[in-house]
Amino acid sequence: MFRGIYTAASGMLAQQRKTEILTNNMANANTPGFKAEQTTIRSFPEMLMSAIDDTNVPTKKGLNLNLIRPIGNLSTGIYLQETMPNFAQGNVYETDYNTDLALMNGNLPAGSSIFFRLAHPDGGEAYTRNGNFALDGQGYLVNGDGYYVLSENGDRIQLPNEEFQVTEDGAVYVNGQQVARIGVAFAPNANDLVKQDNGLFRTQDGQALPSAFAEGDVTFSIRQRFLEGSNVDAAQSMTELLTAYRAFEANQKVVQAYDKSMDKAVNEIGKV
Predict the structure, then answer these.
(1) Where is the Flagellar basal-body/hook protein C-terminal domain (predicted)?
(2) How far apart are the first and last CA of the chain?
(3) Quick one: the chain helix, strand, coil %, rounded to 5?
């Protein structure tokens, strides 16, 4: 009886966690460059249940042997194994702001992705698909959190004003002169990246990703005055949210049924 409670409770915990992730996805449906989280729910390893009986062997020493009789498999519940971002390209829309940039995926190997390079305050680089940039008080190109946007050479990009042009290959021009090139990083396996707050990603070992411009088989482009929107499918997320909520309720009713059974066993049957 108690094992059934544990199994149902594990289902409730998994569905609660899934609900939190789906809710966060829907809350960021309008966040530029946001990548929806995907969940994987799996069952715990099944246990092979056996009955152990004693038998006496008619010998002079009176041996007592244990006989194992297989009963069958028993599931031990489910758990939310992992969450992985969906790195599919989001819809691109026009903003008419010179400081807005959008990465357009071209030919990318399966499982890979490209990102804007940012200087992280703690050292090293951070990566993002959110190209909603601006100029700070000193004219440096920064993201919404104030992280400096890096050039192809890993330098900060300082501009006199917002009257600059960015070509599809990332070259930045001021008054017809190229002053920098937007840094774009290439992640061979995007799922190895660690997702942080505000749509940022970092490598697990802190090492910088290679430049996407140095990858011969990778093609992409940058569009100025455009932003890449979130790739969250609001309708699908709502459907999955309702399904998770109903699964949570079903497991909750199982726990309540076990609770009532134990109440009768203790308070009614125990009196007999």
Answers:
(1) 223-267
(2) 20
(3) 25, 35, 35
pLDDT at 77: 75
Q: Cβ neighbours of residue 249 under 8 Å, at least 6 residues apart?
A: none
* pLDDT for position 47: 59
Integer Rg of the chain from CA:
28
State if pTM tops 0.85.
no
Assess contact for 201 and 126: CB atoms under 8 A.
yes
Look up tokens 């090293």; give the residue.
Answer: 124
Kind of pairing between the strands at 37-43 and 78-85 = antiparallel
**Token pair of 6, please?**
């544990």
Query: Which residue do the tokens 């966060």 mark?
Result: 24
Report the distance separating Cα 84 and Cα 157, nearest Å.
Answer: 32
Q: What are phi and psi of 93, to 5 degrees?
A: -135, 155
Which of 36, 132, 150, 127 has its CA nearest to residue 92? Answer: 132
Cβ atoms 240, 25 nearer than 8 A: no
Residue 24, judged by CB atoms within 10 A of its CB (0-12, 13-18, 19+), counts as: middle
pLDDT of residue 56: 58
- Tell me the HSE value of 114 on the side-chain side, using a 13 A CA sphere: 25
Please state, in angstroms and rounded to a whole number, the distance separating the CA atoms of residues 71 and 101: 63
> Quick one: angle between helices 2-27 and 234-267, nearest 10?
160
Q: What residues in the chain have per-residue pLDDT under 70? A: 1-2, 44-69, 71-76, 269-272
